[in-house]
């Protein structure tokens, strides 16, 4: 395949025009590199070259024997995926490769050639439930509550442990959806229709949510709001109490409204992490649905590690935040409040 030109960046630059370019990200800070890569991809880069992380270098010889992971394709869905490594052309470079490419002038045409094997097929699944609204005037104004039920499975051993449990990411969010569903199902029917969705294969590029978006159980135009629950199993030390931050806080009117009705929701104070575009909500947000993620991920070291296990879950924190969410969601599904994008907020 042929790329038009190579460009270089040392830091995230939301103003850079990277459409159709191969972008070489330079730097030692892995979080800044990640943020720069996401910013380049969001603005249209066709591929991103990044310095290999410490974890990549630790298993470099082992990984070098593997075929590259190309972007995934979901049968029955047109276009590419929206999330994660499964959705983009991102390549990790050794120090030697990085030094070599760093000497190439910007604007150089870049070519990659490879031989591909027949595609391998696998399956994923979603779990979806629905409570039909009781109010004829509001039942077509749907609230979608979601999380993802997958994690990484078996991976490179760390201290002899190869099982990547995903207790926080995202068994904690799945628990929240199930608990809210239990409470709403046992009480009077809400005025609005409520859809509960547990998406499969979020970690592979949002496969489950992409399928949902292409084959929705209700028309997408009828979904008034999507609230995704992602990694709520620990307190975020950046905030003073048991709070959840809401990705894309300033993009819509949803967060302040939920907070005014009991939700322990606050503004996401880490915009450089691009959390808004890193979970299943982004798949629907790109189609115009007011869709955001509630989380308390505080960048803990167990992210995508075998140590993301039950022993590290703060159950008292989960109890507090889920209880606050139930109160605010009960208000939302029984109100005629209209979630909307603010000017310039829609992706």
What do you see in this structure?
By secondary structure, the chain is an alpha/beta fold. It folds into 2 domains: 2-111, Glucose Oxidase, domain 1 (3-Layer(bba) Sandwich), CATH 3.50.30; 127-332, Aminopeptidase (3-Layer(aba) Sandwich), CATH 3.40.630.10. Helix content is 26%, strand content 19%. The protein has 9 helices and 15 strands. A 7-stranded mixed beta sheet has the order 7-11-8-12-15-13-14, sandwiched between helices. Strands 2-3-4-5 form a 4-stranded parallel beta sheet. The protein has a two-stranded antiparallel sheet with strand order 1-6. Helix 5 (167-186) packs across helix 9 (315-332).
